[in-house]
Design a protein that fits this description.
mainly beta; Structural Genomics Hypothetical 15.5 Kd Protein In mrcA-pckA Intergenic Region, Chain A; OB fold (Dihydrolipoamide Acetyltransferase, E2P); 3 domains; 5-stranded antiparallel beta sheet
Length: about 240
């Protein structure tokens, strides 16, 4: 398998110069797909501008100055994806990875306080040994929810496509936003990518086709369920999501 990819063939979600050179670093397989993530080297050099070339970027990363979701990452190919939190404490710089309205992955500034928490979409859930509940999140992590009574699991209040706010310091849930009518959603694909809208209706499709969601902001539109990422109830959880 190739260690690099050609810039012209790189995902269209990458905000890079296509004709500057022939090749670009390829992210390692990880929790995010290649279309929804960027190698750490590109973030340090191309998006943040903390290095002029790959050699300098690798040095910054190897020194342990970059944290992703609260953990030091020293691999310049580590894939940093949607909703991941990037911290550079020495520069007092805290960012979140989101899509802009052109479908490009960008880094928006957030405060140090908000950098302690991460929005995670529940992709699936299952019950494990002992009757405990396990949530499978969009960034590849699994979160165990202790259940006191497996015969009557009152802790089972989470559904797939809901969003939780995870405290990155203690790995505990701070808030829970339901995927339901009236909730605010961030669109992660399609012609309305990067927009924030309120869920108006969820249309269940009795076939192999994805469910369709009707949303409204300045206008009313539809998109498929896979592009919905709930980010709050009456207001977005983070101010970077303009509503």
């Amino acid at each position: 398998m190739s260690r690099h990819i050609k810039r012209l063939a790189a995902p269209r979600t990458w905000k890079i110069k296509r004709k500057e050179s022939k090749f670009v670093v390829k992210p390692r397989p990880g929790p995010h797909s290649i279309e929804e993530s960027l190698p750490l080297l590109i973030i340090v050099r191309d998006l943040l501008g903390y290095a002029k070339n790959a050699r300098e970027a690798k040095k910054v990363i190897k020194e342990g100055k970059i944290l992703v979701d609260g953990r030091v990452r020293r691999d310049h190919k580590f894939p940093v994806g949607l909703m991941d939190i990037i911290e550079i404490p020495s520069a007092n710089d805290y960012r979140i990875v989101i899509f802009d309205k052109r479908g490009k992955l960008v880094l928006e500034k957030i405060g140090k306080k908000n950098a302690k928490y991460k929005l995670c979409k529940i992709k699936d859930k299952s019950f494990v040994k002992g009757g405990n509940l396990q949530l499978h999140l969009h960034d590849g992590r699994n979160l165990l929810i202790r259940v006191k009574d497996p015969c009557s699991p009152r802790e089972d209040v989470y559904k797939t496509k809901d969003t939780i706010v995870l405290n990155l310091e203690n790995n505990k849930i701070k808030a829970h936003f339901k995927y339901d009518v009236g909730s605010l959603a961030y669109i992660t694909g399609g012609s309305h990518v990067g927009e924030v809208a309120k869920i108006k209706e969820i249309k269940i499709t009795r076939s192999s086709m994805p469910n369709v969601v009707t949303l409204e902001n300045e206008e009313e539109f539809e998109t498929i369920e896979d592009y919905i990422f709930v980010i709050g109830e009456k207001e977005p959880y983070l101010p970077v999501f303009k509503w």
